Amino acid sequence: MADSDQTAGVTCPDLPGPEDFTDAGRAVDRLIELYEDAAGFLCREFSAAMAQGAPAGRIRAFYPEIRVTTTSFAQIDSRLSFGHVAEPGTYATTVTRPRLFRDYLSQQMQLVMDHHGVPVTIGVSDIPMPVHFAVAGDPGLTVPQEGAAEFTLRDVFDVPDLSTTNDDIVNGMFRPGPDGAGALAPFTAQRVDYSLARLSHYTATDPGHFQTHVLFTNYQFYVAEFEAYARRMLGDPASGYTAFVGPGNSQITRPDAPLDPTAKLPQMPSYHLKRPGGAGITLVNIGVGPSNAKTATDHIAVLRPHAWIMVGHCAGLRNTQSLGDFVLAHAYLREDGVLDADLPAWVPIPALAEIQIALEEAVATETQLKGYDLKRIMRTGTVASFDNRNWELRDQSGPVQRLSQSRAIALDMESATVAANGFRFRVPYGTLLCVSDKPLHGELKLPGMASAFYKTQVARHLMIGIRAMETLREMPLERIHSRKLRSFDETAFL
Predict the structure, then answer these.
(1) Cα dist. 331→250, 278, 328, 380 in Å?
(2) Domains in the chain, please, with CATH?
(3) How far apart are CA 154 and CA 156, in angstroms?
(4) pTM value > 0.90
(5) What is the H or E stretch that residue 431 is in?
(6) Model confidence over 397-449: pLDDT tens digits?
């Protein structure tokens, strides 16, 4: 794609015809070529327009796409939850940042080709690439706010279109377009680009640093412990971990190296203990509240992690619980409200056996308790998530009655949202909380009590989450990404 063509007042790169591939690696190479030609073209044209003024016509480039067509009703291995389509037809998805997603794209395309015995077709889609997303990979370019340029930006370049940047596929509301192609992947290119931009903003780290196993917490205290663990791992050549990254993309590879501080922490600071192939662990401090939990998971989901687990603090609701006890959620009472429009509260959010076992085994290992003795410090049950941090100050009769009827054993503000979005986005999820107060029994989280609690419990709690993730990392993908999270009409790609 060298020179540009101009048709009907629109200048665009050369648009080569589609090609069939039977090798996933070569197919990804072609996606990279098409994407980088398109993004590079927009960057060059944008730079010229900002320096020389608006061109005479419109400037446009398009996302590349993957297409698969199969005509057979042959039954695929019924144990598999991904890597195949449900029925004959044509299925397509637009693609962005293929270098970032190389491993994922290679794996998913190869599975489809192997299972159906058909090639994948790589070509240029008819979906325009917004200039904002094209220049995101060039640190020297910034799209000005509306009205700041000497011309109206959207008269010349395509801009993000929220009418086509949605969650229709994962929400089960997708309808094929005029060409009749079904959805091949859970997210379109524009939806992915939107979240990649938001991730950089909210976490102050490049999306490329995120690992495939993600821990969420609601307290900054866990960060210091995570960094200390990361440094120990960097000092152990046998650990397999290669680097630790903090906000501002500050990265260290030696255990004693200084981690450059950021002038101001972002809203959701993220820290990444890296392994080859993205097989490390990311810790995200989502802060307090279901809105933050939804925001973080909405955007991290496009990276297609293999698991995410909430390891925050909670209010214990039973008088038999003690501060520092663990709560393993096997059900959720969703009174957070933030996902009701996308996933109604009547939808059950099941516990996932693979996650539950990994967490329980990690608690047993870290506490050296087994079997019946484990019940002394861990209880399994329903976790309720509210959207009101100070619910105790209102009339308690209604909330307490619902908590009792649901058999809830703990209360927080984030866990149900993290789990429900995991269910919605087909990302395996789990919750292990630590009791930090008991408001129904007169034990409020007061400063002195909190300090003692944090000193003794945070390190152990975090290590349990890390141990669970390391167990899940060794699990075959077809086991962790099981059929439990798949609906009637699923995309072939995870």
Answers:
(1) 38, 30, 9, 9
(2) 4-198 (3.30.1730.10), 206-482 (3.40.50.1580)
(3) 5
(4) yes
(5) strand 429-437
(6) 667 888 888 899 999 999 999 999 999 999 999 999 999 877 655 555 555 55
